Prior knowledge:
By secondary structure, this protein is of the alpha+beta class. It has helices at 50-61, 98-104, 123-135, 157-169, 225-236, and strands at residues 2-5, 8-11, 25-29, 32-33, 67-76, 83-91, 109-110, 152-153, 172-182, 185-190, 195-199, 240-244. Helix 2 packs parallel to helix 3 (123-135).
Amino acid sequence: MEVLTGDTVNILPDGEAYDSESKLMKISLASIRSPRVGNERVGRADEPYSHECKERLRVLTLGKPCKVQVHYEREIPLGDKPENRQFGTISTKNKPDVGEVLISEGLATTQFHKDGDATSPRYDERRAAEAVATAAKKGLHSDGEYKRGAINDLSEPRKAKAYSGSLMRAGKIKAIVEYCFNGSRFKMLIPSENCYIMFAPNSLRCPQPSPLPGSRQNKDAEPFGDASKRHARLTILQRTVEIDCSGVTMG
């Protein structure tokens, strides 16, 4: 359903209706450490290859039927309230071990475990894959300096207005839905233009969903607001879509 980081996903169990966020299960890849995406609020920068690892995991898993084998659970400190996280192996039709793919391509490493800790049953295979990636100097093991260009954020109204002409002239273009604010307002990444935009379908208004925990918004959800947002998340969140820009507003 959703890739959260380079080693953690939200899945919807087979047979479950997505009628509540509580139906999603958070699964982390066992015995794998992916580079961490930064956090501006705490002043933490992106680790090298964090975005590449997350993007590769998105391509490998998003929207695909998969098999999950949970190997162990661990308590993860998250703010004031720790989270009991499940760790396992994720398999898809073409990839029997998604985590091993990330390691073999140099986008993630094998997690260090203390003696007596539960590990992936394929721990030795992960270490072997990492040794091959290290010898080939792939990704994280490369000797070269890591560089990732900045992505132009056009969510600010004046910048959106300035760039709108070129996006409208471009016609149909590929985009990735990064975030769903509600059922009809999205943040999108346009790889070919190296930019983020706010995007809304023409002549469509969806009711507002419940505010996110900790947000400043104090309005209650409108009828069917949460349902319309879940519909958008289920059908297009983090998917590659085709858009056609026809106008711009100061919103």
